[in-house]
Amino acid sequence: MGGKVEAIEINSEQRQVSITDGADVFYLEGLRQGTYQLDIKGEPAQPNQVVIDTASEPFQELNLQH
Is residue 17 part of a domain? Predict the structure, then answer.
């Protein structure tokens, strides 16, 4: 079973959840502009934040640790 990865928008606390696959790959699609806290299995990830703004690439690859 994969691990739960969560992106929590700092200002609104809206959450988007993804489950990692067998290779620990996850996708969080359609995030709106904002600053997101990243959690893995309910614990802060490293890096623990990602900012989505008008200058952000449409596809970002993050290597999270917890």
Answer: yes
Q: How far apart are CA 31 and CA 28, in angstroms?
A: 7
Domain housing 20: 4-52
Rounded Cα distance, 57 and 66, in Å:
24
Domain count, the chain: 1
Number of H helices, E strands in the chain: 0, 4
The DSSP code sequence of 3-65 is PEEEEEETTT--EEEEE--TTS-----SPPSEEEEEEETTEEEEEEEEEE-TTS-SS-----B
Query: Does 62 reside within a domain?
Result: no
pTM given for the model: 0.84
What is the per-residue pLDDT across 43-56, written as a single tens digit (0 to 9) for each? Answer: 999 999 999 999 99
